[in-house]
Structures are given as structure tokens and as C-alpha cells.
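User:
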Amino acid sequence: QVQFQPALDAYISKQISADEMKSRVEWDKRWSWSFDNYLPVFETCRELNIPLIALNVDSEDLGLVEVGGFPNLPRDKLQKYIIDPAGFAQFASYPYYKTYVDYVISPSYDLHQSMGILRTTITGLQLEEDMSFSRFFSGRILWDEGMASNAYKWTKANEGGLMIGLVGADHVKFEGGITGRYRRLAKEDQQLKCISVILNPTLIDTRPSGSVNMATNLASAASKSGMDGLSLQLRYLKQGVTAGSPESRESGNTGGVLALA
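Assistant: Predicted structure:
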């Protein structure tokens, strides 16, 4: 989270240890994934003196949105994470974005609900009932827009620099998350490029969100090849629709997930 940039800088400059960095960024309180899984990346960056950049929204601010929506977030905080408000609003208005929401964000909400974790905000505040989809959705797009904005600001300030972001697959699928938002911000700058690559995909990464449960996914990952049942997600177009055109993003002109032969 962006408030912890000084701790990352101190770690890279070898002023503090990895354990001290973990403590200073409040990893166990603010993130559910194992620190040890990320540690080799951190150590490599430290060894090669590669900066670690904090991109994510602070939990305190995200929690405000999860409770009361965007009106609950002070203006200065909104401006901190959303540097292109007009583009931010327009991004969600495109017809193809509804397809992304239905395909990625709605199943994610359903998964959180089935796990019983929608009565707690990211800051640990207990809610009387499940967080509404609109609040969940608002938190998700603040997360994606905030990370895209911070990545864009870094690349603009570091001409010729290369930034590598490690983010969850749902935050990049179909250009509806961080990568699509970054491209929107950088559309006027021909020097800035954005490419997404999926690492070590499992079954759950290559099927429609919500169509594979964790037990099935773990069984697939543990299979001999590690790739049983993977699908190649190809969006095909109706005849007469040009690839890359605005019409190509409309749900009525595209569709389908084709199995990997």
C-alpha cells in the first residue's frame, strides 16, 4: 500500500531486514497471501538494487468505500488515486465493460459471499449484513484505478524505465482491470506500453470466473502435467466486425471460450 513506500525503500537500501519490512508494512494485518511466496522476488530486487514500488490503495481508504461508496471518501483521497476522473467515469460506460463485470467481478463477489467474508471490510470492520455488490464493485474499481494511476505516474517520472507488477489474474483479464486502465491513461504517450502475462496458470485462471471451485483447481494443479483441463480463452468476433474496433468490444459481437486442443 502506498503509505508504506518508505519501508520498501529502507529494505532495498539494506537498512532493514525482510522481517522488519514485513512488520513495517503490516503484512499479516493487511494481506492474506503468504509473505514467503513473495520473498524470493523481494530478495532478488534487493540484491540487484531494483526499487520496489507501492501501488495499492491504503486499506483505510478502501475500507471507507466498502462502507459508504465513493461519497464516503474525502476529495483529497479521491484525487490521490483517481488522477483522470473523466476517463475513470467513461471507462465503466463502455458496453464491453459490462461483459467484464459479468464475467469477472460478479463471480468474484459470489465467491466472497460463499466464503462468508463479505461481512468484514478490508480494515476488519464488522458489518451487520453482507457488503452490497455496489460497495464491493466500488472497492474493486478503486483498487484497479489506484494501482493503474500509481503505475502511470511512476513510468511518466522514470522515462525509459520498466515496471513489472505482480497482480491477481482477475485484475488484468480482458483489459478490464489495471492494464486496461493504464492503457487509457497512457493513450496519448506512444512511448508507454503495457503487456500482461499470466504466470503458472491453473485451471481456475483459464476458465470463466466462478465455474471452477478451489478443490477442482487444486486437483488439476497437482496432476502429473499440471495442465489438465486448461482452456485457452479466445474472444471471437461476428463476421464483418473488425478486430480492435469499438464494435468488437460489444458483448453482442463477441463471445466464447474455446477449449485448448
